[in-house]
Amino acid sequence: MTATTKIALQLLQNSAANQLLSNETFAQLNQLVQPAVLDKDLSSPPGSPADEALYIVGSSPTGAWSGKADQLAYWLTSTGAWQFVIPREGFLVHVNDEDQFYRYTGSSWAAFSGGGMSNPMTTAGDIITGGSSGTPQRLAAGSNGQALLIVSGAPAWGAIYNSPLTTTGDLVYSSSGSTAARLGVGANGQVLTVSGGVPTWQNSAAGFANPMTTSGDLITGGSGGTAGRLGVGSNGQVLTVSGGVPTWSTPSGLSNPMTARGDIITGGTSGTPQRLAKGTSGQMLVAGSTDPVYSNSPILGGYAELLETMSGTAIDVSSTNVKKKVMAANTTFTITGATSGQSHSFTLYLEGGTTYTVTWPASVQWVGGSTPTLAAKCRITGETLDGGTTWLFTYGGSYT
Q1: How confident is the model at residue 27, as a pLDDT?
Q2: I want to staple 275 with a disulfide (CB 3.0 to 4.6 A). Which of 43, 111, 252, 257 is the partner?
Q3: Whether this model's pTM surpasses 0.70
């Protein structure tokens, strides 16, 4: 026996049971053509159902409905039994006791809203706008001549702006609240001012004529405060006062003779400022026969050098030349601060040489060819002629 694919109506076959089968099929059609369900929340069949009474079986069915959850069940008095229809996705029924349509989703029955929205309009000319969260709401028809505007983020009817302007140069200002009013163009030389709380054109107040004629001119007060022109000065001049009036003049202070970075100013004949060009790397400024000069071989008298007590392990030859290091652990020294192409030298007083191991840079070469055995307190000198590429070390022996 076969059935239709949509609502599973049993098809007739050549047999003696065709009459009974036809009646059951007609009863099923009777239920599904305009399905009106009496109740959808019962889990057990009613005690005395009316003939053809249609129900949606509840979620936890018992008795004759056991195992038929969500199916359509109707009572046939002619057979004295409940008939069941398995719903298909898209079945739509009306539940009478709720006055609500329900649609079968394929797994459960869900209230069906019809897929549209309620109409909030009540009067001809109304329009529908989106309210809070898109809820449809009514916007009543506007008045003649009004236009649909956006006011505070929502559509609203409002008056269209009518320009009062009639002439080139007219202005628009607010009169009596939000009413637009025209202010006709003023006459040549008039200025815009306020009179009686509204803008108006008026002749400019008495002032002074502009005496300036050239870019950079200044206006100064002449006799009786009369405005006068002070022409722009020349490059390098400063504004000063002469004879009680402002004037441009060339400053009489020190003229700058320097032309390059590193230059210094020294006093020439009668103290006239003169330029001393920057010396070369390593030169020192010394007094010459008449003027200061840079020299590679200055004649030095007695002088004292600063002793640097090292906290780290870098021998920095760009700072001081005399250094002292008291070791508290095995130490690896580095030499920093040397300038390429220049000679450098330093003296290192080292303590702890018999207690800790010392590692020197690979650039170090010892006078005599071998690394000496260090005393507890010893003196070491280092020299380089090639900016630190090679260091020549001399062991100066111990001291107490």
Answers
A1: 57
A2: 257
A3: no
